[in-house]
Design goal:
The complex is a heterodimer of chains A (155) and B (356).
Chain A (H helix, E strand, L loop, with lengths): L1 E3 L2 H12 L14 E10 L6 E12 L2 E8 L9 E6 H14 L8 H7 L5 E2 L5 H4 L1 H4 L1 H9 L6 E3 L1
Parallel strand pairs in A: 1-7, 2-5
Antiparallel strand pairs in A: 2-3, 3-4, 5-6
Chain B lengths: L86 H10 L18 H29 L7 H25 L16 H5 L5 H26 L3 H31 L4 H13 L13 H12 L5 H26 L3 H4 L5 H9 L1
Helix pairs in contact in B: 1-3, 2-3, 2-5, 2-8, 3-6, 5-6, 5-7, 5-9, 6-9, 8-9, 9-11
Classes of the chains: A alpha/beta (155), B mainly alpha (356).
C-alpha cells in the first residue's frame, strides 16, 4: 500500500509503467520531459487554492524515473505542471482504480479542458515546452493508468 | 548488351574503390535511447553545411563522385531555410510514437448516435480528412526539394506525411463506422489552406502550415475529447493531437532557428504571419472559426445536439480563445513575439473581443 502523494507512490507506479511494454506502443513511446504535480488545498477564508505539495516526475526515453518531492520553486524549472485540488486528484485516481484506466471526464486532457484555468500550465509561459503536455499526453495517461495496479491510500 | 570483357590471365582486381570513403574509423555508440540520429552526429557526418552544393543525392559525409550528374535540382540548399536544432530528436520521437488507426482505436465502443450528432460528427470527419490531405501533400512537395545534406529535417517531414496519412484514414474510418458516411466536401481546403501549397519558400509554407494551420487544428484535436461520444473518438482525437503537437514543434523550432540565424529575413517572416493571421478566424480552414458548416457542427457536438446549440457555441468560443492564446505564445516562443507588442498583429485585439 502506498500513500498518494508520496515518492513511494510515484515510484511504485513507475515500476508498473516501466515493466509493461504495452505502454510503449499505441501512441506511447519515448518521452522526454519533466512534469510537475501540484496538490492544492483550500486556503481557509480565501477564494483560492494554495499549493500544499509539489512533486516532479521525470520521463527519459522509455522510462519514468519516478517522482521526487520538491518545493514550489521547482515549478520554475519543469516543462509544465499539472495542478488540481487534492480531492480532484483523488477522484481521478479512484476512477482509474475502478475501471483500470481513466474514463469519461477523468483523462488528463479532459481535465485540462474542463477546468477554467486548465490542468496543465507553466511558470515560464513558453508554449513550446507547455506543448509537451499534448505531445506526450498518451504516455502521461498511461503512467497514471498504471496506478490502477498500485494499492493506493490517500492522505 | 556488350560481350563480357576477356581479361588476361593473372589480372589483378582493381579494388581502388575501397580507398574512397568518407571519414573512416568512426565508431558510434548508442545512448540510453538506443542508437539514435543524435548519436551518429560524429565528425564530418554531423556537419550540416551552412550552404550545400550537393545536387547529386550524395549522402552527407560520403566521398564525392566526380562527374556524377544532378539527380536533384534542390531548391532548399541554405541551412537556415529549413533547419531546426532538434530535428534528430523529433524524428526519433516520431518513429517511437506511431500508432495504428486499425488496432489502437477501441472501435467497438462506438454506438448509434442521434442523427444530428452523427451528421455533425461526419461533417467534422469530412473536413478533417480534407485538411489532413493538404497537411500531408504540402510538406511532401518540399522534401524532394531539399538537399540530402539536411536529411534530419527531411526525415521529420517524411514522418509528418506518414502521420497525416493516418489522420486522413482515421477520420474517414470514423465517418464510415457508425451508420453515417462522408458529408458534402466542406471546402476547408479552399482559400488559406489551399494557398499553403502556393508558398514559394519553405519558411513561408512552414509558418502557414505548422504554426497557423496545425496550431489551430491541434487545439481542435485536444478539444475533441469534449466533442467525443465514446472512447474511440476520444482516442482518435488524443492520438492525433500528439502527432499534431510534434508538427507544431517543428514549425516553432524552425522559426526560432531562422530568427536567430537569418535576422535579415525577420520582416519577411512577419509578412507571412500577417497573411496567416488574416484568415485565422475568418477563413474556412479553422472549424472553430466563423465558417458556418464546421463551426455549427462543432457547436452541435459540444452542446450535445441541435437543441443545445447555444451551449455548444459558448464552448466553441472558449476554444477560439484557447486557440488564439496558444498561437500568441507559440509565435513568441519562435522569436517573433514583437508583433504582439508593437501593434502589428490584430490577434490580441480579437482575443480581447472574444473574452469580452
Amino acid at each position: 500500500m502506498a500513500r498518494f502523494p508520496s515518492e513511494a507512490w510515484f515510484g511504485a507506479v513507475a515500476g508498473v509503467f516501466n515493466g509493461d511494454d504495452s505502454y510503449q506502443g499505441a501512441g506511447g513511446g519515448h518521452c522526454n520531459c519533466t512534469a510537475g504535480l501540484v496538490i492544492e488545498g483550500r486556503n481557509e477564508g480565501k477564494d483560492e487554492d494554495v499549493v500544499e505539495e509539489v512533486f516532479v516526475l521525470t520521463f527519459e526515453g522509455a522510462e519514468c524515473k519516478g517522482g521526487v518531492e520538491a518545493d514550489e520553486a521547482a515549478l520554475d524549472e519543469v516543462d509544465f505542471y499539472m495542478h488540481m485540488p487534492r480531492v480532484d486528484w483523488r477522484e481521478m485516481l479512484e476512477d482509474i482504480r475502478d475501471h483500470g484506466h481513466a474514463t469519461e471526464n477523468h483523462t488528463l486532457n479532459s481535465l485540462d479542458l474542463e477546468r477554467d484555468d486548465g490542468l496543465s500550465t507553466s511558470k515560464h509561459g513558453d508554449q513550446y515546452r507547455e506543448d509537451l503536455f499534448f505531445r506526450y499526453n498518451q504516455t502521461l495517461q498511461f503512467y497514471f493508468d498504471a496506478s490502477a495496479r498500485v494499492k493506493t491510500a490517500f492522505s | 548488351m556488350s560481350e563480357a570483357v576477356q581479361l588476361d590471365t593473372g589480372h589483378e582486381l582493381d579494388l581502388g574503390w575501397m580507398d574512397q570513403h568518407g571519414q573512416w574509423d568512426t565508431k558510434a555508440e548508442q545512448s540510453k535511447y538506443g542508437l539514435t540520429l543524435a548519436d551518429i552526429q560524429i565528425g564530418e557526418y554531423g556537419d550540416a553545411p551552412v550552404e550545400s552544393d550537393n545536387q547529386t543525392g550524395r549522402p552527407r559525409g560520403a566521398a564525392e563522385r566526380p562527374g556524377s550528374y544532378r539527380i536533384g535540382n534542390y531548391a532548399v540548399r541554405t541551412k537556415s531555410e529549413i533547419w531546426l536544432d532538434n530535428a534528430s530528436f523529433l524524428y526519433e520521437e516520431a518513429l517511437q510514437r506511431q500508432w495504428s488507426s486499425a488496432t489502437d482505436i477501441p472501435w467497438h465502443t462506438i454506438e448509434p448516435l442521434p442523427d444530428d450528432i452523427e451528421q455533425a460528427q461526419c461533417t467534422m470527419d469530412t473536413f478533417l480528412t480534407e485538411v489532413e490531405f493538404v497537411a500531408g501533400d504540402v510538406p511532401a512537395r518540399w522534401i524532394s526539394q531539399t538537399t540530402p545534406d539536411f536529411f534530419e529535417a527531411r526525415n521529420v517531414l517524411l514522418c509528418q506525411v506518414m502521420d497525416e496519412s493516418r489522420h486522413m484514414d482515421v477520420f474517414r474510418k470514423r465517418a464510415l463506422a457508425n451508420g453515417g458516411g462522408l458529408m458534402k466536401a466542406t471546402g476547408g481546403t479552399a482559400g488559406v489552406v489551399g494557398s499553403i501549397d502556393l508558398s514559394r519558400d519553405f519558411t513561408e509554407m512552414s509558418s502557414r502550415l505548422h504554426i497557423s494551420g496545425e496550431g489551430a487544428v491541434l487545439t481542435i484535436f485536444r478539444m475533441g475529447e469534449l466533442m467525443a461520444y465514446n472512447d474511440a473518438e476520444k482516442a482518435i482525437y488524443r492520438l492525433c493531437a500528439q502527432d499534431e503537437a510534434r508538427h507544431v514543434a517543428f514549425g516553432v523550432m524552425h522559426m526560432r532557428y531562422m530568427a536567430e540565424t537569418a535576422p535579415e529575413r525577420h520582416e519577411e517572416i512577419h509578412c507571412y504571419l500577417d497573411e496567416a493571421e488574416r484568415g485565422i478566424l475568418a477563413g474556412s480552414q479553422n472549424p472553430a472559426g466563423q465558417f458556418p458548416t464546421t463551426s455549427e457542427s462543432m457547436a452541435i457536438l459540444l452542446g450535445g445536439g441541435k437543441k443545445h446549440f447555444d451551449e455548444g457555441r459558448n464552448k466553441l468560443i472558449a476554444i477560439r480563445r484557447r486557440q488564439l492564446s496558444e498561437y500568441i505564445k507559440r509565435v513568441r516562443s519562435a522569436g517573433f513575439g514583437d508583433r504582439f507588442d508593437n501593434g502589428r498583429s490584430q490577434v490580441p485585439e480579437i482575443l480581447a473581443d472574444i473574452a469580452a
